[in-house]
Amino acid sequence: MDDTLYTRDVLRLAASLDDRRLDAPDVTVARTGRPCGSRLTLDLRFDAAGRIAEVGMAVKACALGQASAAYALARLTGQRADTLAPVERSLRAMLAGEAATLEAADWRDGVGQDWSGLGVFAPVAAFPARHGAVLLPFDAVRAAFDMRQAA
Asked: Can you list the positions of beta strands (E) in the chain?
């Protein structure tokens, strides 16, 4: 196991994943990460204002994918596409090596939650093939918002 990627914090997050599906979700999205084959099925229910009201997930992934899913799962309720966008941009910039420091990134979402714990994935920037595992829940959520808007 690569200690650079699979830090104690990542492994703790991965172990905390409480994946469970929703009965009768408004939207279900399945995504597979490349090249590792991680798979995430996301169920969402929305409120009348378009915010995520309930989240369910089934995750079959490496520790990075499980950790990212666990972190997102704990923070998705109450989000809209526009409130989550700054966090996703910051995560993508960090993984691409564009964020000079974690402090420079915008880790606050539009509803005031702090996502700076995503900094645990900073070492993944050096491993582009692993970015997809970390981004998997964010890709699935964006696709779910797109599906809801198209319906």
From this structure: 27-32, 39-46, 52-60
Tell me: the pLDDT tens digits for 2-11?
A: 678 899 999 9
Burial 93-126 (b: 16+ CB within 10 A, else e): bbbeeebeeeeebebebeeebebeebbbbbbbbe
Q: Angle CA(65)–CA(94)–CA(7) in degrees, nearest 5?
A: 45
Map out the domains of the chain with their CATH numbers.
8-150 (3.90.1010.10)
CB 39 within 8 A of CB 57: no
* Tokens read off for 74: 């704990």
Per residue in 104-116, pLDDT (tens digit) is 556 777 777 888 8
Distance CA 25, CA 141 (A): 13
